[in-house]
């Protein structure tokens, strides 16, 4: 079974271009399934059937796993079993027509437009890290990029003259995102006034650097963001993804087309983008209830 799992993870990496974190998640979930099978004396793939999967799901429930965790494990098994059937290693999918347990999906947290403005005003632009942080926050809020996409940018990926950024998203899909004048200005200021003062190797291509001259990490960005969120008096929990959610929501609140937002976010399916229409509908209802005399 180990060989089948290795081949499957390699397929996900090569054919579907999934991220390293996603590959690790699949491998860990399938390893747990393999261990369950071994405890049941099921030692090879052809012996896995529908009852095996059902018993595994029941075992996860008995161990107190949440509905979301069980749904994730079942989703991994569904993709794995389809791969095995396509490769001729399994006669039929043991997970066919199996439904995931209901998972209540909450709406993503977003900042108000006023909170976003306060956050972006926090970096002190009188020093090297402050200018860098201002450029990063403005660029992230202006484009809706994932934090991994923002930090993987090289200098050559940003065109300040024409106002766009070239971004490599999930599945190695490249997209061009327009950048507003404020973010363009601060990115140019960072490249002119801040980045040259950070001691680094002349061959370093990364756009955003830490003060040691290396490409800034996600952990580093998260610490920076939390510091400024606290300074801005934002009480709600904030993550790098909050800026992405806020970008999409604020565009739609101000009349942007859903398809355009989908392209800028890099969503393969517009159904993923539609979550933000629910957010704007919720905001509209709140405003109605707050201000209408007969609400």
3D structure, described in words:
The protein is mostly helical. Helix content is 56%, strand content 4%. It is built from 13 helices and three strands, in the order αααααααβββαααααα. The chain has helices spanning 2-14, 20-39, 50-62, 67-86, 113-120, 128-143, 147-151, 181-194, 218-231, 240-253, 258-265, 270-273, 275-291; strands at residues 158-159, 164-168, 174-178. It has a three-stranded antiparallel sheet, with no helix packed on it. Helix 3 (50-62) packs antiparallel against helix 4 and helix 6 (128-143) crosses helix 10. It is globular. The mean pLDDT is 88.
Task: Set out the fold topology.
Blueprint: H1 2-14, H2 20-39, H3 50-62, H4 67-86, H5 113-120, H6 128-143, H7 147-151, E1 158-159, E2 164-168, E3 174-178, H8 181-194, H9 218-231, H10 240-253, H11 258-265, H12 270-273, H13 275-291
Antiparallel strand pairs: 1-2, 2-3
Helix pairs in contact: 1-2, 2-4, 3-4, 6-8, 6-10, 10-13
